[in-house]
Specification:
Layout: H1 2-19, H2 31-35, H3 38-48, H4 56-71, H5 78-94, H6 96-106, H7 113-122
Helix pairs in contact: 3-4, 5-6
Keywords: Signal
Protein name: Ejaculatory bulb-specific protein 3-like
Signal peptide: 1-20
Length: 124
């Protein structure tokens, strides 16, 4: 009886901690709508660069950036990784200087820049 209670307790802790591995779920963001509208994409960019107001989704993205950029979104779910990669690639395609400015703001030490570029190139 004690061993089964212990197993249930351990399993609960493992499942609970694995859920905390990814960022809070916000999988309802319509990435295509953002990318098809330069005004909306610019709004997200201004938000994360502290140059404009943030939407709820913008705030979520902004909170994740300090950890997500240097780690190439290591704690992200697969859907979050795809969205993160898509947004970064879109910013980069529209303006390389803005993209580099974003990277420098959230990864000033450039400690894992190669990891991020690999992630952007491969999605892995």
């Amino acid at each position: 009886m004690k061993s089964s209670l212990f197993c249930v307790l351990v399993l609960t802790v493992v499942v609970s901690s694995s859920r905390q591995q990814s960022y809070p779920r916000n999988d309802n963001i319509n990435i295509n709508a953002i990318l098809q509208n330069d005004r909306i994409l610019l709004g997200y960019y201004k938000c994360v660069m502290d140059r404009g107001p943030c939407t709820k989704d913008g705030k979520t993205f902004k909170r994740a950036l300090p950890e997500a950029l240097p780690t190439a979104c290591a704690r992200c779910s697969n859907k979050q990784k795809a969205a993160f990669r898509t947004l970064l690639l879109a910013i980069r395609a529209r303006s390389e200087p803005s993209f580099l400015e974003l990277l420098d703001k959230y990864d000033p030490s450039r400690s894992n820049r190669e990891l991020l570029y690999t992630f952007l190139a491969t999605g892995l």
